[in-house]
DNA sequence: GCCGTTTTCGGCCCGACTGTTTTCAGTCG
């Protein structure tokens, strides 16, 4: 059972209640709970098993009971009876831009529309005409919305979104009469994937800024164009919003549009309790603006330490800011080396020397070459003989004196299905850093994978557990694994958890990073680079580490070489 | 339905834009 399924069920209850229209606030509770579950770092089943569901923000007694029922039976009675009363695929219809609960209800009551198919038929037959509140433009909007929903345009990976944002900002600077432009939203929070881009602009010529924005290369559609807010959709499907904000409100605007929504709601509640009011134009006492030009000022005025965007998920950061216990987050400059990288000896594209040279340019103190092992045939993995040759080769490179940086001898050894390692112990013992990873039989049972991993980590030659959950974002879910047991085993054998920095992996996720550190484990932030270019992915690992509240002292590869080697020695 | 430095009841973020309206409801973020 996946968190996504639980979130979808809660969200459906929320939308159905909204369509029903009896209560204004109940639907919001379900939607809040659904968001909370969706963004949970941990498997909801594990939390339920501990009886701690109500400790999740937005989940109280009633919703906890419903989740438990869903986990054990696959059903929620309240959802079943709602579906009976309103037999409409509300999630499907709600996903159409421009369609909300009121429109769904109207179309169901008047035309019997229950899903995208019947909506399309009703449109084609012209049956929407004459309905109260639906004119020709709304009809067109719904028709276009169906196309968008069908095209399945979803979320973009952070690196792609960031690259687009950089291009937009550069262009706006040259033609948009822009004094200042920032990207806010989930991009600024460095989420793994983002659904749209939010820009904040300070300008001396609003008209010029708006025209520059709607005239950007690749704009397919202008969704809204007002005095301060403009929305466009690119041909790629990505939606971009721009808000024009005056200088005295820029910090408030940045804070507001960075979100997350739950962080903001929490912040506004604190403001209200202090007799203040917070909106995108500032922090107000009555009509008087108390703060607004800087984010720092707003947090300070609310009695909070400054909260970095990566932490703004309403997952404890506001309490920590109140009590001055926020983490001192890691940054890219804390990283002294990279402990996981491939070469063309296995499935990488560059030679060992090319990878080493590129790592040296980064002024690392050390770089670890860790190719795959023999059972990963598709990656041309190394057997004992080839690995021994590599050891000798790296010794020679180190003694050549060509680099000040130390090249570490490593391997990414496969964890076989019985928990044994795909390389003999006496060869592993000759290496500096051994990362053990799962690359096969990912659909085995939770018990099988957990047992297999715990066995592997008990091998005294293993230093790091690579990409611990095996997920590929937007592509492949995590394999089922009991991380609590794995963390326990890793703690007793002094094995670190990898934070794999590849933007499609980012494994461990933020919630699991926090739990790993809480369990007393060290984190190794590695690129797993398969090419020189991928060494740049370290920054995405750092973003993710920040989202996981990681401090430099939690991380293995912030240590100088000597300390690193001492730390992993067993 | 959730939640608590106005705590177990009574609130619940709030502003911008659009379309179909003659003053506002619905959607969105």
Protein traits:
five-stranded mixed sheet; 17 strands; DNA-binding; DNA polymerase, domain 1; alpha/beta; Beta Polymerase, domain 2; 4 domains; globular; Beta Polymerase, domain 3; 570 residues; seven-stranded parallel sheet; 43% helix
Description:
The protein is α/β, with parallel strands linked by helices and about 575 residues long. The protein has four domains: about 5-150, DNA polymerase, domain 1, CATH 1.10.150.110; about 155-245, Beta Polymerase, domain 2 (2-Layer Sandwich); about 250-320, DNA polymerase, thumb domain (Beta Polymerase, domain 3); about 330-570, Metal-dependent hydrolases (TIM Barrel), CATH 3.20.20. The protein contains 24 helices and 17 strands. The strands form four sheets. The protein has a seven-stranded parallel β-sheet with strand order 11-12-13-14-15-16-17. Strand 16 (about 495-500), helix 22 (about 510-520) and strand 17 (about 525) form a beta-alpha-beta unit. The longest helix has 18 residues, at about 5-20. It is globular and about 80 Å long. It starts with a helix and ends with a helix. The mean pLDDT is about 95.
Proportion of beta-strand residues: 5-15%
The helix content, as a percent range, equals 40-55%
- Separation, N- and C-terminal Cα atoms: 38 Å
**Number of E-type strands:** 17
Mean pLDDT: 93
């Amino acid at each position: 059972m996946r968190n996504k399924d639980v979130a979808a069920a809660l969200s459906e209850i929320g939308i159905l209640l909204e369509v029903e229209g009896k209560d204004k606030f109940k639907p919001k509770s379900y939607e809040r709970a659904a968001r909370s579950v969706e963004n949970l770092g941990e498997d909801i089943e594990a939390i339920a098993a501990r009886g701690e569901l109500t400790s999740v923000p937005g989940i109280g007694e009633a919703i906890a009971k419903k989740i438990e029922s869903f986990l054990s039976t696959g059903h929620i009675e309240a959802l079943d009876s709602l579906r009976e009363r309103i037999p409409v695929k509300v999630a499907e219809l709600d996903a159409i831009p421009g369609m909300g609960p009121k429109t769904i209800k109207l179309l169901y009551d008047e035309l019997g529309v229950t899903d995208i198919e019947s909506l399309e038929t009703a449109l084609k037959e012209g049956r929407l005409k004459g309905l109260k509140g639906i004119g020709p433009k709304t009809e067109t909007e719904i028709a276009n919305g169906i196309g968008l929903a069908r095209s399945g345009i979803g979320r973009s990976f952070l690196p792609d979104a960031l690259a687009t944002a950089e291009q937009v900002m550069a262009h706006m600077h040259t033609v948009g009469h822009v004094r200042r432009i920032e990207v806010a939203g989930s991009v600024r929070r460095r989420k793994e994937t983002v659904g749209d881009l939010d820009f904040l602009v300070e300008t001396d010529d609003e008209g010029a800024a708006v025209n520059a924005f709607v005239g950007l290369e690749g704009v397919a559609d202008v969704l809204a164009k007002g005095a301060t807010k403009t929305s466009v959709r690119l041909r790629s499907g990505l939606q971009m919003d721009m808000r024009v904000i005056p200088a005295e409100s820029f910090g408030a605007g940045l804070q507001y549009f960075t979100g997350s929504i739950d962080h903001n709601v929490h912040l506004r509640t604190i403001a209200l309790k202090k007799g203040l009011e917070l909106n995108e134009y500032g922090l107000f006492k009555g009509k008087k603006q108390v703060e607004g030009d800087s984010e720092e000022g707003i947090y300070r005025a609310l009695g909070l330490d400054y909260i970095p965007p990566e932490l703004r998920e309403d997952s404890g950061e506001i309490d920590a800011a109140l009590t001055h216990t926020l983490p001192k987050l890691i940054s890219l400059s804390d990283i002294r080396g990279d402990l996981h990288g491939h070469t063309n000896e296995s499935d990488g594209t560059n030679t060992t020397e090319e990878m080493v040279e590129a790592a040296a340019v980064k002024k690392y103190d050390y770089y670890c070459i860790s190719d795959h092992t023999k059972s990963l045939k598709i990656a041309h993995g190394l057997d004992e003989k080839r690995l021994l040759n590599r050891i000798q080769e790296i010794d020679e490179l180190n003694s050549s004196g060509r680099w000040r940086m130390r090249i570490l001898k490593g391997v990414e050894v496969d964890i076989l299905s019985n928990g044994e390692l795909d390389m003999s112990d006496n060869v592993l013992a000759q290496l500096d850093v051994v990362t053990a990873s799962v690359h096969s039989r990912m659909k085995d049972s939770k018990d099988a994978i957990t047992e297999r991993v715990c066995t592997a980590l008990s091998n005294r030659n293993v230093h790091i557990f690579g990409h611990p959950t095996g997920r590929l974002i937007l592509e492949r879910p995590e394999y089922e694994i009991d991380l609590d047991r794995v963390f326990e085993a890793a703690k007793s054998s002094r094995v670190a958890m990898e934070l794999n920095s590849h933007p499609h992996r980012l494994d461990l996720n933020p919630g699991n990073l926090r739990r790993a550190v809480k369990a007393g484990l060290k984190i190794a932030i590695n690129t797993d680079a398969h090419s020189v270019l991928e060494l740049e992915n370290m920054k995405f690992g750092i973003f993710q580490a920040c989202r996981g509240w990681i401090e430099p002292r939690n991380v293995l590869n912030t240590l100088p070489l000597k300390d690193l080697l001492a730390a992993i020695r067993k």
